UniProtKB/TrEMBL annotation:
The keyword Acyltransferase does not apply. Residues 10-107 form the STAS domain. This is Anti-sigma factor antagonist. Gene3D superfamilies: STAS domain. Belongs to the anti-sigma-factor antagonist family. Keywords: Phosphoprotein. CDD domains: STAS_anti-anti-sigma_factors (cd07043). The keyword Phosphoprotein applies. It comes from Streptomyces candidus. The lineage of its organism: Bacteria, Bacillati, Actinomycetota, Actinomycetes, Kitasatosporales.
Amino acid sequence: MTGPAGDRTVVEVGGEIDVYTAPKLREQLVELVNDGSYHLVVDMEGVDFLDSTGLGVLVGGLKRVRAHEGSLRLVCNQERILKIFRITGLTKVFPIHTTVDEAVAATD
């Protein structure tokens, strides 16, 4: 599900984000940016698995929105997924929130 939340667009992601599914997420992020949505919140609460391809798509999405002075925030409180962001150092790159409401309310 994708929908507006104030000036932010929430993208709900579930299941596995891997080499097979990441291109679909990339396509959705590119489409949103092309349509003028530059402040994205990716809700990863339903994500069971995330690999390097998925991380690459998120980083690519971040670069895309930043080119328009936008933002990409993540919503995740699952330890196994958060650990991936910590190990890769991406906690310093992405603002990570525990709820969608918190991410939407956050100021840049």
